[in-house]
Amino acid sequence: MGFFLEYGPTIDGSTQTSIMDFSKSLTLWIACLCLLRESWRVQASSDHHHVDNGVSAKHNSFHGDDQFISVEDLWNTWKGSKVYNWTVDDVVLWLTHVELPQYVDAFRKMHFNGTIMPRLAVKNATLTVSILKMLDRSHVQKLQLKALDTVLFGAPLMNTHNHLKDFMLVVSIVIGIGGCWFAYIQNRYSKDHMKKMMTDLDGLQRAEQSLHDLQKKLQIAQEEHRTVEVEKVNLEQKLRDEINCAKQEAQRLKELREGTENELSRQKYAEEELDQVLDCTTLGRGRCG
């Protein structure tokens, strides 16, 4: 089964019908391989030349005259595989690994080693029911699929301790814990920052409201100032008009006073002349008497 080792990870075919069909065909192939091997061993005791020709003909009919790999190569590869060389303890460990530990005693009783794996991979009611007492069909199918998987793709990893995986797991846990702690710190910081921002936003809203009220007050004060300015201009104009009127009245009174003074001067001068005339008249009368 050398070319089977070229496949990578183990395939679990318990949930895929395509794997079931593939396992049936491979089961038939393994059975044919065992039969051909037995027939080849029997014929090896007879005429060597006749046996070689007969086995070659059977091999050609089995694998389609493949020029690169033969049934003997497959058989030799299988005999050299790790699974073929398993001990009874290895088979029991594998049986526990595939979650069928209830049949460990039967396997130990029959001394099943790695060479039994191809027979477990084929459908064999005598082996599974009569010898191993496996009455659950799901257990039988699981045993066949796991055995087929082991024969095809090699031994699974069982009870292997990988320090690199442990280290990576520890690193992953540390990173996860660190990430959770960082997320918690960030969440807490975000909440505090959000709370502070909401407080600042409320303060800003109050300041904006205060500014709006001040703008209204300023607008009212400006309107009052404009009203006062208009009233001041009107009052100044009224005062100027009254001052002009008062000046005109003063000028008129001044002119009137000057006219009165002139009239009084003329009257005084007239009185003086009259007194002189009276004095002359009195004096003339005295002279005449």
Automatic annotation (TrEMBL):
SMART domains: SAM. The keyword Ribosomal protein does not apply. Residues 86-140 form the SAM domain. One of its GO terms (cellular component) is endoplasmic reticulum. One of its GO terms (molecular function) is calcium ion binding. Residues 204-263 form a coiled coil. It comes from Oncorhynchus mykiss. Pfam families: SAM_2. One of its GO terms (biological process) is store-operated calcium entry. Keywords: Coiled coil, Membrane, Transmembrane, Transmembrane helix. InterPro entries: SAM (IPR001660), SAM/pointed_sf (IPR013761), STIM1/2 (IPR037608). This is SAM domain-containing protein. The chain crosses the membrane at residues 167-185.
